[in-house]
TrEMBL record:
Protein name per the record: UDP-glucose 4-epimerase
Pfam family membership, one: DUF779
Phylogenetic classification of the source organism: Bacteria, Pseudomonadati, Bacteroidota, Cytophagia, Cytophagales
Top-level taxon of origin: Bacteria
């Protein structure tokens, strides 16, 4: 059975990820819900942002792990997130800022059928202990 992904990515965001990966190596995303555009997904070099039990791994987008703070996940757990990119500068420390673009989230509520087939989530500590996830 195919699991319903919790996070997706647009083609435009994939192209930006490719540019950033060419320059910075493996990447990861985190969405905190805090200050400095914290409600926007932030892109880091993989491992630059330390995840722990207060973070939730939602899956991968274009080969990049996507995490969200557990408190933010409480609000977003019933929605499918799509990472997109738009022109403009955010106020964050995310890697795409020098390109004159910023990542953002588009969301929609899962259907009842999709909710029955949800992909699992893992807290950051559990993610780090699962070689099949952490790669």
């Amino acid at each position: 059975m195919v699991k319903t992904p919790r996070v997706l990515v647009t083609t435009a965001a994939e192209a930006t990820i490719d540019l950033l990966r060419d320059e910075n190596g493996p990447l990861m995303f985190h969405q905190s819900g805090g200050c400095c555009d914290g409600s926007s997904p932030m892109c880091f070099t993989k491992g630059e942002f330390r995840v722990g039990t207060n973070d939730v791994w939602l899956g991968q987008i274009h080969g990049c792990d996507f995490f969200m703070s557990a408190s933010q996940f409480e609000y977003w757990q019933h929605t499918q997130l799509t990472v997109d990119v738009v022109k403009g500068r955010g106020a964050s420390f995310s890697l795409e800022i020098p390109l004159g673009v910023r990542f953002l989230i588009r969301s929609r509520i899962f259907t009842e059928e999709e909710s029955k087939q949800m992909a699992p989530v893992y807290d950051g500590e559990e993610y780090l202990t699962r070689p099949e996830l952490a790669g």
